[in-house]
Amino acid sequence: MRTRPRPIGSWLLASPLLVALALPIVALALASGPDELLSALGHPRLAEAVALSARTTALSLLVIVGCGTPLAWRVARGGWRGVALVETLVALPVVLPPAVIGIALLDAFGRQGPLGGVLGDSLAFSPAAVVVAQIVVASPFYLQSAIAAFRDVDDDLLLVARSLGATARSAVWRVALPSALPALIGGATLAWARALGEFGATLLFAGNLPGRTQTLPLAIYAALEEDVSLARALALILAGFAVGAVLFVRLLPDLRRIWPGRAS
């Protein structure tokens, strides 16, 4: 019986990157003891930051999904002038540094910005600024997943639905959305996790005001200057949310196979 050769060389080449990815998380988990974690869970800064993060990320996700789903559908179906430009804009926040996004948001929505007079009081350094920063930074994670999912929808299924009397909008709701739903859920989960972890653009555009604009990542930044143990424990809690989100997305292929409304 022939044995399958083991690609030892490829593992040797891959191991430095795997270590670089895994070691920081393992070190963080080992550095935070149970006492530190329990102390962080009872700290008032955590309660304020988690409450603010929960409110802002929920609102951000609502806007991203509500506005992003029709945008993703239009981009995925193509056939109109400017679609390439829109798709470029969708991907741009992924590669732009968060500091650049924060400064750009200040220039756009600050008192001296083109929308400053329209908005009255400056949007910057307010809870609404936290939401705007999260939307800009996190939306590509949902949009790119939704665009790819809508491109995979079988056109023949839409044509059959139309031939059976469904309107174009009804065909999207009854055929395209159920087929793409697992991917949409996965993209929304990643967008929420990215919004939850947003730091740079939020710091520059919304500030770091406890109880007002201080989200969980900003609370970690503030705690780092006062209590490293608290900052480490808060970071471990935030990492736990991120790991949970990634694990959930990893389980979605199984959900795709058993999804009851999925067209096949």
Give a short summary of the structure:
This protein has one domain (36-258): MetI-like fold (Orthogonal Bundle). It is 77% helix and 0% strand. The protein contains 13 helices and no strands.
Determine the strand fraction and express it as a percent band.
under 5%
CATH superfamily: MetI-like
Spell the H/E element sequence: HHHHHHHHHHHHH
- What characterizes the major β-sheet? none
Tally of strands: 0
Give the overall average pLDDT.
85
How would you sum up this structure, described in words?
By secondary structure, the chain is mostly helical. The chain has 13 helices and no strands. It has helices at residues 8-31, 34-41, 44-77, 83-95, 98-109, 116-119, 127-151, 155-163, 168-196, 200-206, 216-224, 228-250, 252-258. The longest helix has 34 residues, at 44-77. It is globular. The relative contact order is 0.14.
